[in-house]
């Protein structure tokens, strides 16, 4: 048994009548005679004809009327745009988001499923070793920087005394404390001068 119906360019052979019947139902029962596109159900074929080949529906669409029918048979809902019909099918009829909603426009020729395969993004596995290497280098640089800082802080500049002995410079706070002690040890008022109720002046020797 052979099938010579369009859109086949060459006749297709079938061994069993059941195979031919299945083929005819899938590829020729719901085919549009205008554009030769095939559709899975008669209801979707009628929606296709209304949306793509009906001049009255085109005029009504230009006037702003709701002309996009629901895919579910028995639902009388009509939407203004295909996008709103898609939301209606997802919210009210639990259609999957990856459903081929353009089926009423493009048909099912060459398709094995009405679900669109979603490609997963490849994880950047190659970037993980690079990130680990960068963190390792950063930790190494930090460890090398800490001893050098401590060494620079602990080492004070030294000066050479006149007698040839190398002495390290004291911090500014230590020098100020030594200067204060030396100043307090000085006696600016001579012992011959006395203050009191008596006659001012130098004391008699």
Task: Summarize this entry quickly.
43% of the residues lie in helices and 7% in strands.
Separation, N- and C-terminal Cα atoms:
155 Å
What is the N-to-C order of secondary-structure elements (H for helix, E for strand)?
EEHHHEEHHHEEH
User: Regarding quaternary structure, how should these chains be classified?
Assistant: single chain
Average pLDDT: 77
- Main sheet attributes: strand count, strand direction, barrel closure: 2 strands, antiparallel
Number of strands: 6
- So how many helices? 7
Which class best fits the helix and strand makeup? mainly alpha
Poorly predicted parts: none
Q: How does the overall form come out from the CA principal axes?
A: elongated
Helix share of residues?
A: 40-55%
Instruction: Tell me the radius of gyration.
Output: 50 Å
Biggest sheet strand order reads: 1-2
Strand content: 5-15%
Jot down its keywords.
ZNF511, C2H2-type domain-containing protein, two-stranded antiparallel sheet, single chain, 6 strands, two-stranded antiparallel ribbon, 205 residues, mainly alpha, Znf_C2H2_type
């Amino acid at each position: 048994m052979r099938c010579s119906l369009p859109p086949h360019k060459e006749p297709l052979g079938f061994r069993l009548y059941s195979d031919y019947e299945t083929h005819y139902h899938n590829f020729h029962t719901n085919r549009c005679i205008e554009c030769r596109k095939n559709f899975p159900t008669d209801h979707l074929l009628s929606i296709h004809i209304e949306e793509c080949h009906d001049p009255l529906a085109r005029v009504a669409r230009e006037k702003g009327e709701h002309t996009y029918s629901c895919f579910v048979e028995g639902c009388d809902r009509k939407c203004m745009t295909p996008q709103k019909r898609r939301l209606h099918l997802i919210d009210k009829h639990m259609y999957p988001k990856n459903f081929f909603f353009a089926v009423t426009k493009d048909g099912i020729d060459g398709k094995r499923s009405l679900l669109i395969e979603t490609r997963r993004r490849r994880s950047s596995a190659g970037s993980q070793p690079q990130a680990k290497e960068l963190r390792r280098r950063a930790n190494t640089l930090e460890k090398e920087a800490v001893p050098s800082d401590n060494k620079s802080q602990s080492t004070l500049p030294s000066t050479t005394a006149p007698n040839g002995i190398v002495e390290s410079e004291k911090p500014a706070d230590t020098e100020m404390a030594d200067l204060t002690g030396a100043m307090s040890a000085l006696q600016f008022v001579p012992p011959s001068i006395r203050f009191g109720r008596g006659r001012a002046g130098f004391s008699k020797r």
